[in-house]
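User: quick one
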Amino acid sequence: MSRWLLFAVWLAAWALGAQAQEDWRRVAVPTYTPAHFVLGQVQGWYSPRAAALARQALNLEAALAHGCPADGPEEARLAWRRSVVAWARLSAVAVGPLNERRSQRRIDFLPIRPARIAEAVAAPGQDLELAGVAARGFGALEWLLWAAPQDAAHCAYALRLAGEIRAEAQALEQAFAARPALLQEDEALVAAMNESLNQWLGGVEMLRLQWLVKPLGDMQQRGRPAPLLPRQFADQDAAAPGAASREERQLRWESLQELLVGTAVPAPGQDLVSVATYLRGKGLNPLADRLLAQARLADQALEQAGDGPASLELAARRLAELKALVENEVTPVLDIRVGFSDADGD
Amino acid sequence: MTFKRVRFTLAALLLGVSLQAGAQAPTPEAVNRNYAEIVHASYQDSLTSALQMQEAIQAFVAAPSESSQQAARQAWLAAREWYGQTEAYRFYSGPIDDESGPEGRLNAWPLDEAYVDYVKGRADAGIINKPSVTITKAELSRLNERGGEENIAAGWHAIEFLLWGQDLSATGPGNRSYEDFVDGKAAHADRRRQYLLTATELLIDDLRYLGRAWAPDALSNYRARFERGGLESVRKIIIGLGSLSRGELAGERLEVAMNTQDQEDEHSCFSDNTHRDAVTNAKGIENVWFGRYRRLDGSLVQGASLAELVAAANPALARRVGEQISASVQAAEAIQAPFDREVIGSSSAPGRLRIQKTIDALVAQSKGLVEAAAAIGITRLTLSAPK
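Assistant: Done. Structure below.
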């Protein structure tokens, strides 16, 4: 669609009486359809992030190919962190290809098992799949870069893992680029919108459990002075202990937040339409305002979440409150069926 | 056509007839009453079979030998057939897993063997080898899940570990010697015997507790409140089915093991009974959906079902979900033992394909259950109660 045509569509929407506003008393918000919501997410949000991940993963593989073990792990560690940043920004809410390909289990399974990694390092010709996901992906690579000997055998295995991450990232980039063509029929669009809200709920629950509740419980049970967060090896960086996990937790939250209450007001069919903006487009401003207020409380709590149990408990509670609001009040007005996800079970 | 195919087709036909003929929809209250009847009957059967296991364990501990150990193992396997079906009653904060529920003490896994007893390379590991710890029901309960998720001191898998030992074999289950329980043959044999008896008693206490919570004709137990719960109780039933289908059985128990290709992620890893865990879990879901349960004594509990409730709103959907659920049972039955070999290999390995087929069927049925719930006016299948 040309820019001029898009502009014409936007003008038409405006002329038809765009009703809600970003600051909805001043900025007109057009009425959006499920197609605007879903395609805006794919094209304006997921696709660029998948492309960014593919670029970073390529850099990670190159860093390991050229510098490991001769130049030490620093360059590869930096490339790993950049890749994980891109991954966190993309995968906080796993829709479409992320969900269908089970990407998280493929390249970011936690906890890793060092004994399995050691076995795989010792069997360089083995099919990588046979090593199992607890010996592969970002977590295993993190262990190799921060906790394992920096020798040729470990570097060779690390390079294979980086290659697998790069291949998955490229597959995701391609799949997201091809996705709009699969989302033409009403049925597919409604299913994708259902998936988006359901996976958002799953994503916020995963953030709450894995990055707040579990570390908190572990800290209290074992008497640790600080929570042991998921990126425990990168967190041992003497220059910034704990920074890797805290940064990733924040990025995951920011992705969830953006999808839920991002305040941009795009022309229909162009860019990301957050849930709050979608609600405003339907004239549901009081609910959108409450969503925004609750998200701000969660944002403050997450920003202030340190090593103290009280701050972690507060952040977990704020996320639970936000999730309850989305489940109980947002999904019914959008006619979304809240179903089951990988976050169910125990 | 194989026997299984014939049976499946026959079941689908019978269901079709009953759904079409059943023009009169059951009420949610009738569905809840029959569900409660099935839950109570299956916890009673689980208790009965666990008591039989206790007898076998007491006989083994009184006179340890290869044959008495084998009898105790067989009794454990037999009892698991009944407990596995009850897992469809989890995940909605009912008696099994509300804040004071015993689930974590009954069936928690994976279990760190070294928390309970010696393991390869660590002869003095575990509670059994710490004489300072008194082995009582209260103490095992206190130590369960203390200091780590895998610090499991009680329940089915602690008993399983004591009967079979670590599974160090690529082709078979654990191979603990009965002499581990004979004084003078193994360190702390007396404590090992005491541990096995105590963990079994605790498990039976917990099963009795669940039976009481679901007992009929009580004025104020959980069942009494559940039966009065109308559509909210139906919602809980569906949450149990969907959560077990997707997150727990398809996800944690099958897909994670497929992905890691690691025995650590096998549910009943000491006895190599994981393939039956999958079948009995899937069977438990089928029992609830069709509202019928074949008891330990061969009698049938049958009544108003979810399938009929949904069929009154959408017969085709009810039929499809029923077929999906039966297909999951059939797919799970095809998984071969030992499960820890079934998960090994590339994605085209026959065992992995069999497990993947089960996962796919379970995921499909979890989606079908969401549609079924919507057909009867339930749109939120999460733990937080609608406001």
